[in-house]
Specification:
181 residues, alpha+beta, seven-stranded antiparallel sheet, 6 helices
Amino acid sequence: MREKIKKNFHELKGAWLITWEFHSPNKKRDLRIFGISDEIIDVLDSHKGFDWVLDYTKNIYKVLMGEYSDKILLSKRGKNKMKKSEFFDSHFVSTHYQTKTYQELKKITDTKGIGSKRHKEVLEKWINYPCYISIGHNPSIRTRKVRNIKTYINQNDAECIEWQEKTVSGEWRNKKYTKSI
């Protein structure tokens, strides 16, 4: 049964959704240990490019999880690319471009070209793959493209957000988060 809505707010057909994640049986409790009470970090325009969103997500992680020394180091100009690379290598950055499907697609493109039957099969699989960014581990920040995202106030006066996100199999599943009152 669908939850009763007291007041609708906003709705988008597509967006980048940025959330906190924690891989444990009690995600909410473990996030609170780190002072995180709200799992939703931000919502971005779905037309923002992947590289821009990746940089934005990295900056959020730096701001919210970095030590003072990390923040100063990563803010320096000049020969800073190596420092950023070292910082984010140690904080595990993962994207859909690192999946086996994408690696196979690149290999087939380089060896057989674009027209082969296998290329078409893998490309179709890749097109249906969810677009995501994950940074860190327990807690981590997860950014992914979602669709049909909307916010509302439920009957208990709690703000809710609902969306659909793509699974690895290419199916869309409904998700919901209710902000703690």
